[in-house]
Every structure is written in structure tokens, then in C-alpha cells.
Fructose-1,6-bisphosphatase (Planococcus rifietoensis), 321 residues
Amino acid sequence: MERSLSMELVRITEAAAIASSKWMGRGLKNEADDAATEAMRTVFDTIPMRGTVVIGEGEMDEAPMLYIGEQLGSGDGPEVDVAVDPVEGTNIVAAGGWNAIAVLAIADRGNLLNAPDMYMDKIAVGPEAVGKIDINATVIDNLRAVAKAKNKDIEDVVATIIDRPRHAQIIKEIRDAGARIKLITDGDIAGAINTAFDQTGVDILFGIGGAPEGVISAVGLKCLGGEFQGKLVPQDDEERQRCLDMGLEVDKVLMMDDLVKGDDAIFAATGITDGELLRGVQLKGSFAESHTLVMRAKSGTVRFVEGRHSLKKKPDLVMKD
Ligand code: VTB
């Protein structure tokens, strides 16, 4: 993959975030998602790559663009797998809440797991706790392992988890263990990435979210030298069959290398609304400000990019020439 693709990807998530931010707090999650998807799709056409969407907005018959199998890019350049989530946290944008991001990941062709659209149980940590967690171990054992790896007491450990009834038991176990919790309304990609950054105050992510987002989270943590493990959680026989058709045993622990193969991948995320790690888009009349995290697994480079975009010169967020 070309190193320069990193900066190109920033342009894509910036455009998606700015487009979506115009819908912040307006209670219209589909409009927020459509605006980001369209902006993302438009900028993709200008990028020198031959991309195939492996994680996108849905199957070809359900999504008008960024559907699974769609070819992206200007038609020359490296062949890559593309995973997109134009708005990770549509409810967050609709409510003007925390931590909505426009996010995408790419890897060499064939290297991203084509995760089915179903639930995945997840656990994620930053670099200090690599090799110490196990999704099949108890919650308290994982919390103890993270506390030890980070040289702190279990009371100082902060777990993050999406606030859902299905997580009542895990939340109880975390509390019984004496650890603290940051409940999030949505957006477990940001939750997973946050575990690798000290300033977020989050040490470990637990809980069930979407499998496609698990693959994107795994790319992010691979770039950061952290760890992500997932297990598909089919909800019915049809989903169970889909796992088998993909050659995935349902109880198999998907390690980071199963989710994203090889040592190279690029991850980019731009804040739509404010979060612990990324500021949201600021609309200032004639210009917009953006805040983006972009990183590459092969080099381990992590960059934060602040953008200032002229809405006069680039009203559609993309220069056509
Ligand atoms: C959401 C969303 C997550 O999974 O929770 C979703 O916020 C699935 O959970 O970020 P629900 O069906 O309970 O809403 C994610 O999209 C991704 O993992």
C-alpha cells in the first residue's frame, strides 16, 4: 500500500464528518448518515486506489452507495479492501451526544474479514495490556490483568461498555470487582480506540456491538499496538448458518490477525461530535474545522490532523480537479 494513502483517507473522513455534522442534534439519524455516505462516496472517486468495499452500508440491494462489493477509487493504484462507517453513532449525531465519528479502514486486498452484519462480543485494550486479556476469561480476571499490566489498583481501572440491557450482567461483574465504568450510549469503535490513549481515562472495552465495527476497531488497535478480540454472536439459526457458510465456528475467538490479516492497514476517523479523543466538527460560517486521527499499522505512525476547510471555495467538500 502507498504511504500517501493515509492523507487521502483523511480527506474522506473529514468530508463525511463535516457533511454529517450539519445534522447534529436535529433528531434525524438517517439524514445524518446519508449526508456522510454521499460525501464519503464523492471523495473516494478522487483517490488513486482500486478499492473494494468489504464492510459498508449494506448489501447492494439495500444500499445505494458504499455497498458491499462496490468498487471505489479512481481506477488506478493499489488494490485494497475498504471498510467504511460514514457515521459510527447515527443516534449520537441525531441527539448531539458524544463520540460520533466518521471512520474507515483499508488493508491490502483480501486482508479484512468480511464480517457478517450481526452482533459480536468484544474486548479491547491498549498496548500495555497486550497478551493479558482473554475474551473467554471472566470479567474480573480481565480487569485484574489490566490493572496489573498498567500497575494500578482494580479500583482505578475504567471499563467502557455500551449501555444496553444485554450488558446488565457484565456491568454488575465490573462493579462487583470494584472497577469503574464509563457507559456509552453508542459507538464502540471510539470506545475500543479510546483504550489505547491515556487521556481518555478508559482502560478496557467490553460488550456486544456490531461485528463489522469490530473489524474496523481491530484495524485501529493493530495500528496502535493494542489488542482486540471478538466472538460472533448469532441471534438465530439463519445467522448461525451465515457464520458456518463463512467458515467461522460460532465460538471461535477472532483475534486481531483473524479480523485484519498482515502487518499493514490504515485507519482514519474524524470526530463528528465531541469525544474524549477527537473534537467534533466546528461549523464557523465560511469555514469548518475538523479533527482527525489517522494511523498506519506497518509504520506505527499515529497522527492527529486539524483541518480548516473553506466552505466558500469547496461548498461540496471536494475539489473536482
Ligand atoms: C450500536 C452502536 C455501536 O453496534 O450499539 C450497535 O452504537 C449495535 O447495538 O457502535 P444495538 O443493536 O443495541 O443498538 C455498534 O454500531 C457497533 O459496534
